[in-house]
Records
---
Amino acid sequence: MISPVIIYFIIFSYIPMPGAYIAFVDYNIGKGIFGSNFVGLKNFEFLVKTGDLWRITKNTLLYNLAFLALTNISQVAFAIMISEIKSRWFKKLSQSIILLPHFISMVIVGFFAYNFFNFNHGFINTILTNFGLAKHDFYSDQGIWKYIIVFFKLWASTGYGMIIYLAAITGISSEIYEAAELDGATAWQKIRCIVVPLLKPTFILLFLFGLGGILKGSFDLFYNLIGNNSVLYKQTDIIDTFVFRSLVGQFNFSQGAAVGFYQSLFGLILVLTVNAIVKKIEPDSALF
């Protein structure tokens, strides 16, 4: 039964691995990957000198750390709240409403954001105009977009992760709750002393999985919200959007591959390091 999964990873993850060699050559389509001139670390050197590597790494790390922390906290909070709802139909309705944004395309989200923040006919600026206030050019304001992006990420991701935590809460033995009730524990005390501690292994596991992709940004989210607006690149440009522009706009395959190689290597080292720390502190919660 696991053979289709193994075949999938061999075809799409292991066979393409030699393509990482593009990061170390001046890639020429006519000569091919291994026929192109070897340039060593020149592609990485260019990124370091221009400052692009530091900028996109910083943005990607900060955004993903915010995503990782805030989404996990919101997922735990919503899972606990949903589990405490007594009405069965209202619980299912609430769960469905929170989960729905996960299935909405980021293209639609980008369209929604544009109609909301557009300078000429956007919803917010229309309201400001009706109240006699000056319009605000959101698409020229670098500082505000980090909050907008984090908001949309939370909106889209909370529902899916909530299901995982909700399943963990459902798996908690009813005998533990009964023992707590006999001791006179309130609902809040049961959440604080039973639910939250028992969710810790799930939280750590999901956190470690999230760290593996901490340098892999949500390309669909960033690109559909920001697009090719160079005014906002300083605050919103991440590794994935930078690689996309290198390939599509400049046809610089070598530079894009160099950033992708750096991204994967950094993620691997980070996961191994954090897993080693977790293994020493709490061995049962480590990945391996």
---
Amino acid sequence: MTPPALAGDAPRVLIVDDETGILESLRILLKNEGFIPFTAHGGRAGVERIPELRPDIVLTDVRMPDVSGVQVLSTSRQVDPDVPVILMTAQATLQSAMQAVNEGAFYYIQKPFRNDELLAILRRAAEHRNLRAENTTLKQEIKRRERTTSGRPIGRSKSWLDVLRLAETVAPTDSTVLITGESGTGKEVIARYIHELSTRADNSFLSINCGALPESLLESELFGHVKGSFTGAVKDKTGLFTAANQGTFFLDEIGETTASIQVKLLRVLQQREVIPVGATEAVSVDTRVLAATNRDLEEEIKRGSFRPDLFYRLNVIAVHLPPLRQRQDDIPLLAESFLARSATLRHESVKMLRDDTLDALMAYAWPGNVRELENALERAVILSTGSVIDPDALPERVTARRAEPLVSERTPVSPTLEAIERAYIQWVLQNEGGNKSRAADMLGIDPSTLYRKLARYGEA
């Protein structure tokens, strides 16, 4: 007679008993019925196999000379709280059955038992396991959808929506992601968004700015240290890679790291282990790594200041964030969000922008990107006494009159070559966010030449 089909993949069953004959007979029975059986001779062997095997079901004798079945049950539930554990005993009592149930046993069966009775219990255990797994998957999907709709970073421009779609695609994977973009574009916002949509969302999201700490302190923060490894190391310290185990670790400004730190980061990505400062043994870590930089790492590789092998490990998925000047459609949405948040923090009503105030925000190039916009609006809220924000409340650099463009609704009369050159330089500077070094590169002139021209125009 063909046994009933098992739902999903064939369950892996760990059989634990101190009698070799019982182990072998149960192994053959389960194999013939479509299970994948593994055996452990004695409770101690069973306890040792559980973490490495991570079985779908555990079938264990209760009375064993070295380690009891109740201890096997306890270890199983520590490793995986959802694993069904079936206890077998030849000396069943009501008290022992109640203890087994209280400890979390799925079923308590008395020896000797009929094969069909045990198989029915095992199939129920497999079904229970599958239902729990499906329920967990469904809950994660519901949470992912809620996070996608409620916590989506603000923006409606095509370039920003492309970024969000890419982030949403890579989030459920464990791939390393390298986030690039100018300072203030929201690299940590995207990193947190990826984490919130990932299967690690219920675990830690930790971050560190690699450019904010000296090398020795950064090494200790990243990898930890042992007591006495250096002056001031008065006790063991857990590194952030270890603290973020099962979660996500965001390395901001990774382009600022030294060659020595880069070697150690490469080891983490390759071996998935860290060696604390002063330690001799490695510690395994299961941490997803997201990294960010405002530098061109490929250029840094050419200069010899960044390791190419580390770059390729980090650059599995590349997400580039556009500067705010390239996503002007998002400025009104961002401004509205910042003003609403400010009102909530201050327990005040939301202040509104006058049309000409919004025009000024839209016309400015925002070299500091979203961070600069947020700071400008915070200043404006503080300086505005009424419910409406006037342009005067904005920083002067935002409201300063911009030079009249060469091309406008009225055709200029006989523009000079100097006027054409001046307008072109202004256009390049605006597109480069006011960065004179990059503007000089775009113009094909030395920075010193650009500064002389700007000084002549009275714009240095």
---
Amino acid sequence: MKKPFIYITRKLPDDIVSDLRDEFYVEMWESEDVPVPREILLEKVKEANGLLTMLSDQINSEVFQHAPSLKIVANLAVGYDNIDIKSANKFKVAVCNTPDVLTDTTADLTFGLLLATARRLTEASEFVKSGEWTSWSPMLLAGTDVHHKTIGIFGMGKIGEAVAKRAKGFEMEIIYHNRSRKQNVEKDVGARYVEFEELLTHSDFLVCLAPLSPETKETFKKEQFAKMKKSSFFINAARGPIVNENDLYVALKNGLIKGAGLDVFDQEPINRDHQLLTLKNVVALPHIGSATVETRTKMMSVCVENVKRVLSDQKPITIVNEEWLTN
């Protein structure tokens, strides 16, 4: 009997993949860093029963139309804005993600990015490494205090909750805006729900952690930056398209806000000549929110388990399109 075929769109560690090879025929794209070319992906899905994908892979209706035997797309991420869920439902394909296992890791990175931006840590590190540190002065690379300031969280999901807990340790005032109120967060860390307008005007650090959707796309534009404090910082560890990058650049360049910490961008990887990278008051990271060895290994294991379960006619650990369960 022919083994089910699984295609993995990026090279993963052998010890992760070996768990699949006993039951399935597995192929992987050869590179860890370079995305699988579109034409190769479309060719491989013609025979694939399962796909293990990265956030950079656009799994749209074209892919599903080329994949008559496909039963599951396991996405190595919490977000799944790279996958056309309507098409997945139409073709009766399960879409799985990796929530929960990366919550604390991403919250650590988000708060670290906030600290690095406020205290100018990357700028200071480069200052030392480039040999510019020749003396000490009272205001040398002076940054901004984080403790006792106000953090505003846009998107109070599980990662937002974890960031709020870290902010409590810095004795920050915690405000948030979300589609719905989170009574447990208000009780546990003293967070206060506010309307979006107050989030903009009151936050010293505005942290974006909302999922990307048609409703959240370009939530932050010139009008929003103009309402923020001139002393405030914008931190984005969610998705790049939630922000209009040109408007953010103008706001930073003209002093409408003081600085920005960005782990995500509209187009990734970002071009080295991008205008945001010319600004000293921008800390830029290469989308590494969940990038620890421990967490990425757990994420891969969840993907593998989801693939095994769906191809064995079992319910997966995590499912994005609940509609699939009733198909």
---
Amino acid sequence: MVRPDGRLTHELDPHDRGPQDACGVFGVFAPGEEVAKLTYFGLYALQHRGQESAGIAVTNGRQIMVFKDMGLVSQVFDEATLNSLNGHMAIGHARYSTTGASVWHNAQPTFRSTRDGGIALGHNGNLTNTDELEEWLAERGSSDEVEQSGRMDSTNDTSLITALMATFGDLDTEQAALEVLPRLRGAFCLVFMDNHTLYAARDPQGIRPLALGRLEHGWVVASETAALDIVGATYVRDVEPGEMVAIGEHGIRSRRFAEPNPKACLFEYVYLSRPDTLLNGRRVHNVRVKIGKLLAEEHPAEADLVIPTPESGTPAAIGYADQSGIPYGQGLVRNAYVGRTFIQPSQTIRQLGIRLKLNPLRDVVAGRRLVVVDDTIVRGNTQRQVVAMLRQAGAKEVHVRISAPPVEWPCFYGIDFATRSELLAPGMTVDEMCAAIGADSLGFLSLEGLVQVTHRPADHLCRACFDGEYPVPLPKPASREVQPMLEEDEDDD
């Protein structure tokens, strides 16, 4: 039941977006439940992790049915479609592309036929050794077999994983996965299934989150605990780095395919995860409030009002206001329904830029000295427009405070940052960045402070976008691009 008449969405301004995560994944084993609808609502809770395409695969024990299309979860699925996806087990995926173009063929879950019927698979993350894996795939079978495995109908690393598993025709799904998983490098959280068993696996570094939850009569896995909450599942634990879990009619079992070397993404705490999600046992909202308090200690300001850049800056702004004693207020209104549209904006509308998403409350900001709290500065376009907008609305002063260190390095593990040459921070001082965005002052949370509030050891976190220390070897083209920059920075020390 795959519908190939997909539509391509367009961003309002591709040069003015924040960092984007690769995907959200969800899986459920629950005989007797409406698993397609549970998956729909789980993906709805994970929509922030990917807005380009969405898909659900369901099995009734005899065949796997896949439905996917371009667009938001609510645009792809309707009641009739969900009612037609009957079964006892399902996986789902909400995609933002970091590997492979934003086209229908790259939507997930992917599907490959096998001796036992087939494998459907969804992936959150980004592999760094795809060249090596493609060579292995070619060695595994003839070009005809590779073509039949489906590798050639898409350009993402998820299809590569599924195709590799499908080449082990003499093994069952679990054994095939245990052959393939140890060969993968990079960040990967996988949900996959055959007709009988649901699987979930996480890379040895555990860069992206993956949670396991319990239903009254089943199990759920999801990229974030917020998706467990929405379907009524109780959080049990995280899928551990280097672990694969298998869930079937006889319960749940665990297999270790690699030794753990924890390097959880620090950026999940700052921006990517929902505020109501648990990371390492800590509620993200509470972490961000503490980030704001520490930010106020590190970078105080004389001001009349603290306002967030909604919505991701809100918890930190609350913390900043509480610690500083400066009143908290809402100075910007966000249009929650703007972000992606099927209609390209006209040039006149495009020139309005961020006003499509944010608009100032003039009566609140006029004549006041403002502290504006935001999560990150990537290219600087958003902050530049926000500062200008607030000044036009009558703000007396605009002091920008960022709840993370400067983003100086690209991510190769599933976040679609700009290349280093497009980032604002590299090669610039804080004063120069302040002038570039037009603010009266600018302050970033220190890396030491950010690590501190996570309650995790620094060497258990991936901090690469902030300090350039990559915990997993980079793909060769990226390594050639980044290494000279690393050497230049070392020479400057």
